[in-house]
Write a structure and sequence with these properties.
The complex is a heterodimer of chains A (195) and B (324). Chain A is an all-alpha fold and 195 residues long. Helices cover 85% and strands 0% of the residues of chain A. Chain B is built from 9 helices and 15 strands. The chains are: A mainly alpha (195), B alpha+beta (324). Chains A and B meet through helix 1, helix 2, helix 3 and helix 4 of A and helix 2 of B.
Chain lengths: 195, 324
């Protein structure tokens, strides 16, 4: 991977955040900034998750390993946007009141599911370093299959929060669902080969 | 057009600075979602409504017609809307409602009435004494605004059609014109158009129930429900049905759109009530718009949206946790 390409991807993935941040501090996000930030960060988290999960199939289909080399960065960006999404919820929707946060998580399953999707990413972010990868060896690979859980929970979260028009939620779910199915298919093929 | 509607002598585009705000906001919201495309986005908004109306000011006093709280600016009221006929994003109605035809317009009143009939836009604007009322508007999504509406009591309209003694409910219907309403053409929408709402007759006859034709002294922008909409300030916003073409008085409780879609989430009454939780949003507090980044402006929600003194007696003896 050329360093400049890595830098371009790094900056590109940061742009949605920078734009939001500049607009937010300049009070230019409209009358309900919380809603805009929530929406935009949630959508970018899911887009980046799609890119992260595309790395392997792109290698398999086209033989291009560029995305694989960028996968750690894309995964961490998914987590980054997920974190802001969660912080936005705490700031705008609960006012940082612990009781409010807990009651929202308990009473509103679509929020609990979203939180679980974030929680599943937490150990992946912590163990994303090369040192951790070496230390955990084979277990690292097993642990990082948790990202499939994040993908499934994120789809559920997305479909559940839609009130009447499930268009966008459906598109992302179909895309992520196909990426998961591709992996099931690959695992089966491998099992057959090894027999 | 009519005595109630005065066309300003110079083009409204020259005298209404809010159109500039409107476009600016659109541009920015587009930029937020597609930062890379922002440079190429052009604002397609065409301003609608905004014709000056003649009206009186509502009585200040115990009637609830006039709150002294600070008003939500027009550029916010007209840029942040739920009008799913045009899409489910808050900015969709502003972007996509400009080609909804609101003139000519007719509103049919039928059902349990002595004199069923039709009102045309001219009858509506000419035939009623308009007044400005400043109401709180509380959305079920836990945000709220303070809006200066211009309109007349729904009771006045209904009385003209002489409800019979059998009339117990009032059903309302929004315009359904797929050609002009892109949200209704969505294959993935689960709403059974047209949008429907309803009130009990005594709720409809309550003096606070308003038929609004304008806001901030001018005719309604399309995205706010032009040319005529309902405003029931003690109920969640989705009860305040927009762009009404049909009113029917009925003997039995009419089916409403949201009830049909998710009956466990949306009841027929939908009175603002912090004690009754909604499966999606806590109703204990609300973000009063404009909300800010550093100060989200969260305030506690009041029962009946602060209109208890005026409307609580309508619900005496009812278990509001069951009849939500």
């Amino acid at each position: 991977m050329k360093p400049w390409l890595r830098a371009v991807v790094f900056i590109t993935a940061l742009i949605p955040f920078l734009v939001l941040f500049i607009q937010a501090i300049g009070d230019r996000l409209g009358p309900d900034p919380g809603e805009v930030i929530m929406h935009v960060t949630g959508e970018w988290a899911i887009r980046l998750l799609v890119l992260t999960l595309l790395a392997s199939p792109v290698k398999a289909w086209f033989g291009w390993s560029g995305l694989l080399l960028l996968r750690r960065m894309l995964g961490l960006y998914t987590f980054f946007y997920g974190c802001i999404h969660l912080l936005t919820f705490a700031h705008f929707y609960t006012g940082w009141e612990a009781v409010a946060v807990i009651s929202e998580l308990v009473e509103r399953p679509y929020i609990a599911v979203g939180f679980a999707a974030w929680l599943a990413m937490l150990p992946l972010a912590i163990t994303s370093t090369k040192a951790m990868q070496r230390r955990l060896k084979r277990r690292w690979l097993v642990l990082h299959r948790l990202v499939y859980g994040t993908a499934a929970l994120a789809c559920l979260h997305l479909l559940w929060q839609a009130r009447s028009d499930i268009g966008d939620a459906l598109i992302y779910s179909v895309v992520l669902g196909s990426l998961l199915l591709w992996r099931v298919h690959r695992a089966r093929k491998r099992a057959v080969v090894s027999c | 057009m009519s005595a109630g509607l005065i066309v300003p002598p110079i083009p409204s585009s020259e005298i209404t600075p809010e159109s500039i705000y409107l476009k600016r906001r659109q541009f920015l919201s587009a930029a937020a979602v597609w930062p890379l495309a922002a440079a190429g986005v052009s604002a397609a908004a065409t301003e609608t409504g905004g014709k000056l109306l003649q009206y009186q000011h509502a009585q200040v006093g115990d009637g609830g017609f006039h709150t002294a709280e600070s008003k939500t600016p027009l550029e916010d009221v007209s840029a942040y809307c739920n009008f799913y006929e045009f899409g489910t994003d808050k900015t969709d109605p502003t972007k996509h409602s400009y080609n909804m035809t609101t003139d000519p317009w007719s509103l049919t009143v039928k059902g349990e009435v002595g004199k069923p009939g039709k009102l045309h836009l001219e009858d509506i604007l000419q035939g009623f004494q308009l007044e400005e009322r400043i109401y709180r508007l509380r959305c079920v999504e836990a945000w709220s605004m303070v809006v200066p509406w211009v309109g007349f009591s729904l009771a006045e309209l209904l009385k003209r059609f002489e409800p019979t003694s059998d009339a117990r409910y009032v059903a309302f219907e929004t315009l359904y014109r797929p050609k002009e309403m892109r949200g209704t053409r969505s294959y993935t929408s689960t709403i059974d158009w047209p949008y429907r709402e309803g009130l009990r007759l005594d709720e409809a006859m309550h003096p606070l129930s308003l038929m609004a034709v304008g806001l901030y002294g001018k005719t309604l922008p399309n995205q706010n429900g032009a040319p005529i909409r309902l405003v029931v300030p003690w109920k969640y916003g989705f009860k305040s049905i927009k762009s009404i073409v049909g009113i029917r008085l009925t003997r039995s409780q009419p089916k409403t759109s949201w009830q049909g879609l998710a009956p466990h989430e949306y009841g027929f009454y939908a009175n603002v009530n912090p004690e009754v939780d909604h499966p999606r949003w806590s109703q204990k507090s609300e973000r009063r718009l404009p909300s800010g980044f550093f100060d989200p402006n969260r305030i506690p929600t009041q029962k009946f949206n602060g209109y208890s003194a005026q409307v609580a007696q309508l619900y005496q003896g009812m278990d509001l946790s069951k009849l939500y």
